[in-house]
Amino acid sequence: MDDTSTARAVINPDGDCCGPLGGVRAWRHRLVIYRDDRYVWDGPITNVDWGIDSVELFAEDVTAWLGNRVPHQNLTYKNADLTTIAAELIADGFFPNDPGYDVRILAPAEVTGSRTYTRNVGQVLDHLKDLAEAGLDFTAIGATILLLPETWRERVGRLSDADFPEGLSVAEDGKGLATRVIVAGQQQTASDGTVTDQVIGEAGGIDPYYGLHERYVEQTSITDTASATSAAQALVRSSRTVPVFIDTQEVTISPDSAVDVADLVPGWCLDVTSAATCRTVAQRLKIVGVKVTETGGSDTDPGGESVQVQVAASGAEAA
I need a surface site. Which of 79, 242, 259, 307 has the fewest CB within 10 A? Predict the structure, then answer.
């Protein structure tokens, strides 16, 4: 969630397939993954390793191209929903050389702001990640980039201790706590060119339970105090409690679980009930990471698959 996913494929070539694999080139070719004929992942190959008896392909999802793109025109927004800003920023980044993509806004972020982006300044993916800190989430399915509010609560399944036969871990990330956030935007410039002040927004304060934990964030695309304050409020909302993570670590979800693996998309939620550790959890948690590993079979080995999922609760989910 809010980052670029990766894929890796190891191929042991035989017969005539070594020739085509020798022609694979980074950023020229793509790796596409289907699950039960369902198109689930797509992105450019970014690295290739040719060994004596294997070829290893590394790929990143379609947002990786945005890491290699800059804004191609000056973009200015006044009190626009963050999903609108993100969609147009993505479109501008892809415009000069479109590799084939789509953007879907699942719902407005309901967080507005004023932003400005300068032609040729900054990477588009970094700008998108800044917006993700201020009230929206993004993820990719196939060649589609999904934009959704951080308060998205759609559920795709339910898991309990029985679905984690080899165990799990529950952890708190104390570094993720912030009860007061200060967001610094652009510097204000007078008519004579001198810098007079900087846009500053803040939210939160002393929490009766946790005390005071302050965080300073710079987002130079923000152009006014109201937008900086809105971004600070969004950051406080997502970090006002210590984030709780449930991780299946190196174990797999039971194949009997009542979830469709293809539906385990970061940004969606699972209802999780666990009393396997001293920290009991029974709540709706957001999927923040998924890892699927498949080993191909042979005449004597059927192969296998493992599915790990990481879910989390922050202040946004608690709300």
Answer: 79
